[in-house]
Design goal:
Layout (H helix, E strand, L loop, with lengths): L1 E6 L2 E4 L4 E9 L6 E7 L6 E6 L5 E3 L7 E6 L4 E6 L8 E8 L14 E2 L3 E6 L1
Parallel strand pairs: 2-11
Antiparallel strand pairs: 1-3, 3-8, 4-5, 4-9, 5-6, 7-8, 9-10, 9-11
Length: about 120
């Protein structure tokens, strides 16, 4: 089994930055691919970013240049650095992991492991 625990959400003003963390534990070998999703109220869940086991990163066009995904493989922690935030970035952010990769955009369907989510609120 795999456990994913996010942290780092909170409230920030527009233009600010937030760094999310996701600590993975358990059968880490089952989750070579990890990424971030978000879901805003009344909207569908959307995939934001993915990192593969080789360290290659992928981003949804709308966050490219503002968000950076990274991973500390020694500690099994996934990060999402979010800069230049706008109120449209307000959402619950989820860490996700799977045995295989996925393309972006992605709804999250069929991805096996999820964190509990962390709220990010951006005020204008």
């Amino acid at each position: 089994q795999v456990q994913l625990v996010e942290s780092g959400g909170g409230s920030v003003q527009a233009g600010g930055s937030v760094r999310l963390s996701c600590e993975a534990s358990g059968d880490i070998h089952l989750i070579p691919y990890m990424g971030w999703f978000r879901q805003a109220p009344g909207k569908k869940r959307e995939g934001l970013s993915l990192i593969n086991p080789y360290g290659t990163t992928y981003y949804l066009d709308s966050v490219k240049g503002r968000f950076t995904i990274s991973k500390d493989n020694a500690k099994n922690i996934l990060f999402l650095q979010m800069n230049s935030l706008t109120p449209e970035d307000t959402a619950t952010y989820f860490c996700a992991a799977h045995s295989g990769g996925w393309s972006l955009p992605h709804s999250g369907m069929a991805i096996k492991y999820w964190g509990q989510g962390t709220q990010v609120t951006v005020s204008s």
